[in-house]
Amino acid sequence: MKSPQFAFLESSLSLGRLSHAYLFSGTERELKDHATVQFLQLLLSDACGSCRTCLQIASFQHPDLALVEPLEGEGKMRITIDQVRELKYRLSLASYGGGHKVALLKRADLMASDAQSSLLKLLEEPLGQTVCILSVDHSDLLLDTIRSRTQEIQFRARKDRTADSLKHGSLRARFKQAKELGEGEKEAQEEALFALASEARSRLLAASLHGTPEEMRRAGILAVLGLKAEEAFVLGRGSLRLALEQAYMEL
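Request: output the structure for the sequence above.
Response:
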């Protein structure tokens, strides 16, 4: 099954819009790793997934594929400048298959600063049909100049997407969205409901401190719930208390 990310990459290649450098970012590692292998197979083979060449690529053994992974040193994992220099040398050699040469840097967000500076020169002056893929969990750990020279493809975990979506819209709508999260998202649901409850309390407190009692009852509470005065009137048959009770029952 094709992910939306891979479908986009496949379309880019077929339309002749392939970038010389991609940034695969996000914490959805399984999806990201699967799409990475598919993309490598598309660039270096026929992407059938089962031929000898595709199997070589899946195990990162293809001669036109240069894999760079963090090394352990001084108690931490890092991609070093020596690794980047070796990568640049390998990419300067002629392609074994006469087509693309591909560099895959896994956890490129663990690259040392001098290694990033060295890689930047490669991104500024790409060699032939070279394609660089930087796979990261956290793209903000890379230099802005590197990020600006790559095309970012995001692979974000459902929890991350849910957290972002719950930051927008009225508080009432966001409560309802949090309540509707599936069984596999209980942790995200609990976190979201706790955060929204805290926000609701803060808004109500602010309304009570800076508004009149009437504003507190009307503008403050209705704003927190995301209700208009007319909606409150209809819901509560003219009674603000009934309207609020109805609104909370629907959350």
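Confidence is low (pLDDT under 50) at residues 230-238.
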